[in-house]
From TrEMBL:
Originating organism: Medicago truncatula (Barrel medic)
Family, as annotated: Belongs to the WD repeat WDR55 family.
Keywords: Repeat, WD repeat
SUPFAM superfamilies in the record: WD40 repeat-like
WD repeat copies, ranges: 93-133
PROSITE patterns: WD_REPEATS_1, WD_REPEATS_2
Entry protein name: Transducin/WD-40 repeat protein
Xref: InterPro entries: WD40/YVTN_repeat-like_dom_sf, WD40_repeat_CS, WD40_repeat_dom_sf, WD40_rpt, WDR55/POC1
Length: 157
């Protein structure tokens, strides 16, 4: 499968149960594409285009069973977008004091975000609020993973 996005992609994520892929682009846009899972040569179809951020869209992650997609940006914001309608569910302006680089699902109701200053924040998606914060590194968070069996977050810089 090949998708010509027209712009540089910073991040992609596959939907957990549907043939959808989300891409966060350098111009701040979020694109969703539907693709075929069989071996036909049908091109992916863009089903959603949202101007999510004023700066680049560095992180994109499906949440809530794929009903929404989160994006993060150097404009310090995190945006939750409805996958079906493209409408904004929630926008956290100034979610971090530095550029948001990474997003990850932790549980059904929590996600984590990492920024350019090495800070990781855990967010309660029901309350739309930060429930924990860690000064994990002195430099940017390049990636985050979650060990659910041990309830531990691992971050790299």
């Amino acid at each position: 499968m090949e998708i010509n996005l027209g712009k540089l992609a910073f991040d992609i994520d596959f939907h957990p149960s549907e043939n959808l892929v989300a891409s966060g682009l350098i111009d701040g846009d979020l694109h969703l594409y539907r693709y075929s899972s069989d071996n036909t040569n049908s091109d992916p179809v863009r089903v959603l285009e949202v101007h999510a951020h004023t700066e680049s869209c560095r992180a994109a992650r499906f949440i809530n069973g794929g009903r929404a997609v989160l994006t993060g940006s150097p404009d310090f914001s995190i945006l939750a977008t409805d996958v079906e309608t493209g409408s904004t569910i929630a926008r956290l302006d100034n979610a971090h004091e530095a550029a948001v680089n990474r997003l990850i699902n932790l549980t059904e109701s929590t996600v984590a975000s990492g920024d350019d200053d090495g800070c990781i924040k855990v967010w309660d998606t029901r309350e739309r609020s930060c429930c924990n914060s860690f000064e994990a590194h002195e430099d940017y968070i390049s990636d985050i993973t979650f060990a659910s069996d041990a309830m531990k977050i691992l971050a790299t810089r």
